[in-house]
């Protein structure tokens, strides 16, 4: 399965966060699209509308397990998707910004 390191992401890369609502509210990457894994299949159309047509989708969760499942699903659908290795835990650990919905500093559960 294709993966990418947090450090390899650019600021304008499309990021799909598949963590649950409470995790998202605690803190997330600014500009990420949030579709919890528990609702992913039902809300798949939101991703196809929001994602860049010819761009790569970077899938992230807390540590990389749930996002790996979603990445495999997307690849099976013929979509260019990669799992963000280490997830939001590593994202925060390397000093990338984590925010709440109102733009305040957040944290990773």
TrEMBL record:
Q: Tell me the ranges covered by the Rhodanese domain, including all copies.
A: 9-100
Q: Which InterPro entries does UniProt cross-reference here? A: GlpE_sulfurtransferase, Rhodanese-like_dom, Rhodanese-like_dom_sf
SMART domains hit by this protein: RHOD
CDD domains according to UniProt = RHOD
SUPFAM superfamilies per record: Rhodanese/Cell cycle control phosphatase (SSF52821)
Give a Pfam family name: Rhodanese
Instruction: List the PANTHER family hit by this protein, alphabetically.
Output: FAD-DEPENDENT OXIDOREDUCTASE, PYRIDINE NUCLEOTIDE-DISULPHIDE OXIDOREDUCTASE
Name listed for the protein in its UniProt record? Sulfurtransferase
Q: Which organism is it from?
A: Streptomyces phaeofaciens
């Amino acid at each position: 399965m294709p993966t990418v390191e947090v450090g390899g992401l650019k600021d304008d890369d499309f990021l799909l966060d598949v963590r649950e609502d409470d995790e998202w509210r605690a803190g997330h990457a600014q500009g990420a699209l949030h579709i919890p894994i528990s609702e992913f299949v039902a809300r798949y159309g939101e991703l196809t509308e929001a994602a860049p047509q010819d761009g790569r989708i970077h899938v992230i969760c807390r540590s990389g397990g749930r996002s790996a499942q979603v990445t495999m699903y997307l690849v099976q659908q013929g979509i260019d998707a990669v799992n963000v290795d280490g997830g939001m835990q590593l994202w925060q650990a390397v000093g990338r910004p984590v925010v709440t919905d109102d733009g305040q500093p957040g944290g990773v559960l």
